[in-house]
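The instructor's notes for this session suggest beginning with a concrete chain rather than abstract definitions. Hand out the sequence below and ask the class to guess, before any prediction is shown, which regions might be ordered.
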Amino acid sequence: MDLRGSISILALYDVCDEIRLKDLPPFIQGRVVTPSFKHTAPEYVRFERPPLIESIEPVLVKTGERFEAALQYYDYGVISLVLRFPFSGDWQRLRELAARWVSSTAFDELSAGIIREKCEAIRPALVRPYEQWLNEDYYTFHVLPAPGVVATDMIAQHGMEIAQIVHGEAGTLSDCERAETLQASMSYYPNDLAMVGWNAAFLLDTQQGADATIRLLEYANSQLLQFRHYDELLTRELREVYRVMERRAGVLAEWRMRPAAARLRKILLDVTELTERTHHALKFVGDMFTARLYKMCVAKIGVTEYEALVADKLSTAENLYSVMIDQFQQARGFVLEVMVVIILIIELVFLFRGK
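After discussion, reveal the predicted structure:
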């Protein structure tokens, strides 16, 4: 069976605290992203702050493949490089490309170089750039539906090949692994299919439908980057708080809890605000299929687990903040009591000396 479609590679980098999108136009030839989904509902599905997308020169990799390329800028500090390779061939060829690309690091150096060069060009629009970047990559394998093709029939006939493509595996998978992979799928029409894995997805759809799903997968991966960043930030801050609390000895040390508590409180407020902004950047109202598809994407990619980790660490930080403030208040109360006693002693001394 001859397949036609495309392979898209998403490489996302968390480069700074914020990208001022309004300051980007002088440095890029970008346009605002308007989400399009299975059915037209722009008032129901929208970005709170639409990202900007910029088409760049095609990219040629060492193995000879030529990729169309575009960059997408999110206001919360993430830049995404999208590489697209037109595909035509059989299941064997698609499976070979998946096995070669999904598990390799062939695109890491290439994508990092493109992002690094672009960051230098747009530096005035970056707020607090990072020295070390977190990154995520994701692969989508899109096949255009042939006339008369039904998704259920394709799964029945080529379920093993699809599972291998999603896993980036050339070898045969176990029946258990194949069944579990095929469970993470959704369809809106009889001739479309979205099968999502943790680092790759298989799409049977029209070009417009596939572009919409790829947009959701890209956004989900950008969320994963953000929650990974918050997780690392909270881990560092909690480690420092534990160190401060272990070093304390005596009233003066407890008195010095206030600066550490104030810093922790600021981190808590910042992370809570950024988490809310990230979580609600894309809104779904009324489009139940897109909402369910997005929920499946974030679950398979791992966003849900990192979001839970961040929530747990925020709760721990809140509890530690309360403990630190209580210790500071106790220390302040003790110091005030000592001061009152000293004043009384001075008064008594002057009283007995007749002054």
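Then share the key points. Residues 346 and 352 are 10 Å apart (CA to CA). Residues 39-44 have pLDDT under 50 and may be disordered.
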